[in-house]
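Data card: per-record layout.
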Amino acid sequence: MKRTHYRNRTLIIPLLLALALSGCRGQVNGPVPTAAVEGTVKPKHSGTIVMLTNRIDLIENGTMDGYVQQFKQLYPEADIEFEGLSDYASDILVRLSTRDAGDVLLLPVNLPSYELEDFFEPLPSSLTAGESFQSFVSYGGHKYGMVTDNITVGIIYNKKAFEKAGITKVPQTLDEFYEACSKLKKAGIIPLYMNYGAVWPLREWGDNLVNYMTGNPNYLNDMVNKNEPWQLSNEWGEAISVPRTLVAKGYVEENLFSDNWEISKTKLAKGEAAMALLGNWAIRQIVDAGANSEDIGFFPFPYDNGTTHYAPLNPDWFIGVSKFSKNKELAVAWIDFLVNKTSYKKEWGFYDENNPDDPGMPQYTEFLSYKPKMLEATVQNDRFIELANRAKLSFWSGEYIQELIAAPDLQKAFDELNAKWAEARAGVPASATP
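The structure for this 434-residue chain is written out next.
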């Protein structure tokens, strides 16, 4: 039995800074993947646990129920219920603060590491050993979350739309990217669907972009040593200038303030829109919105006119066990099964670190063919998190990126951010860095 809850509300919780990493909120329709259940029946686990997730699409199309049926082959007396949170990053903060966070849940990544033990159960070391991103969601020698997948970010594009606009070569520089946008607009195609109104996709144009375009995965962490990190002449100015240019030239959707996430996927699938800057997790959703897989491509974002470009290798959400779960043994078994023994990674467009020579999707193979420099992310340290919280800056949510894109005077907008940041630095001691 599944419980699907949809929650849409905006809340400010002082304890945590809201964020969304993969933004996978859409509905898709597709067959339930299969997975080989290996091994013999383990010691019996019984009872029902609840998993909180942002993947409403996988609840609705039966994928999660399919995984549960496979799990029950190992543990016949166990069952999993699901709650899908449409605004997961905000809603999970409320659930944690009330200790009503189910048994298994996705961890808010922007939680100070020293607070992990207050809300989550340490996972067995045998479960997390050998994973990438070991510094994430760790504290006091314990790991509190298991990475669900590895993701990268780039331009998802419709090949038929490119063909209609006379684009014969995938853009490899920023000038070529703008030229492609111009051709698409003249052909009556939306060059790039920014999803300005949905807000959360905008994070790809701000902190996410500056943290890899520099080749320095600690770029955001290094901001704690600066009073005025936002400058027109540095990476922030370069990054924000791109979406501002796209909007100014009319290279994005017209109805900027409408949340058209579901519509955008359909338009990309039909070729009515040509491109989107998103993680590879979105490819499967666009295909399931009606596109032929062979018509959808993926290439590294050419954020400047250099000959090579960095692309991020980031963790998707981490999954863990609530400290307040009454069936932690079953919760750990479910996490192990979902991440390690189902086809989730390959079926839903993620890069499997255990099979680097098998990207899983032809789109990912295309992406790697352009030879981007893959930059593995590092965790944001506690001092950065505390500064962001104190400054009340919505890192990773996209809200302040929306304001920067629309700002009549970008320098003035940067000055306002710098003032908040400098004030926050004055109030947070350097000892906050672990």
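Known properties of this structure: The mean pLDDT is 85. The chain has two domains: 1-148+317-354, 150-315+361-434.

See the next section for split statistics.
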